[in-house]
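Fold this sequence, please.
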Amino acid sequence: KTKQEAQETRMSLLDAAEQLFQQRGVSRCSLQDIALSAGVTRGAIYWHFKDKAELFDAMMDRATMPLEEGM
């Protein structure tokens, strides 16, 4: 994959995680659920993130980044 494709996959995973976490709650979502929603394999998640906690942290960082840049 190109760097651009890898970045798009990462963003798709973060989008899918955000949507599923809001719908079901973090504890009720598996990495497999997120992978299916994003249209990738579970292995793709582990390429980008160590575990669900790291994925959650990245999602939260993405959500707060625009706020911090505006300060």
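Helices lie at 3-24, 31-38, 42-48, 52-69. The two ends are 36 Å apart (CA to CA).
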